[in-house]
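hey so u asked for the seq, here:
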Amino acid sequence: MKKLVAEFIGTAVLVLFGCGAAVLGGAAIGQTGIAFAFGLAIVAMAYGIGPISGCHVNPAVSFGVFIAGRMPASEMLRYWLAQFAGALVGALILAIIAGSTANLGQNGWGPGYLGEYAMPAALIFEIVFTAIFVIVILGSTASAAPIGFAGLAIGLTLVAIHLVGIQVTGVSVNPARSFGPAILAGGKALSQLWLFIVAPLAGGALGALLYRFRTLEA
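ran it, structure tokens below
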């Protein structure tokens, strides 16, 4: 239960910091500031709840950890429930603060959304960059990795991913992060949610398979 509470809190914090930066401070801090808000949220939670749950705060990461053989399926499913619930609560708190559900930092693609990239570009971005993210996570938390630096490596990787991809999809690489805002915003965000569940899970599996088959084992 402690692990599930930690995952719930961590995912809520990720949505509040990352999406909150986009919604409440986006005009002042710009895309670079938003990117760092997402990354710093992960750094904070990695050291805050990492010793309890591993700080997955992302169903794609939990799926990758499962594929890599580091977590049983039953525990992964419990993590998913906590993560999706935490993201929804984080989005709800953000909606209350913002006074609206129209803009909660929801992900998307196509005409009218940021860089107006097409669906194939969004799909490829989310698969490839989630794979990269999971590779960094599994590598930096491996037994051969330097102790104490995983949180920084993972958080800074998320910053870099956002710097590259905010204009493409707003950056998900995390089904829960997309789920919370989309459920409350509805409309186009909800109709496009499938991509931000399917693509990150596929990317997480691809990254994890490199560890499952010991391709990247130290």
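The chain has a mean pLDDT of 96. Residues 2-212 form a domain with the Glycerol uptake facilitator protein fold (CATH 1.20.1080.10).
lmk if thats what u needed
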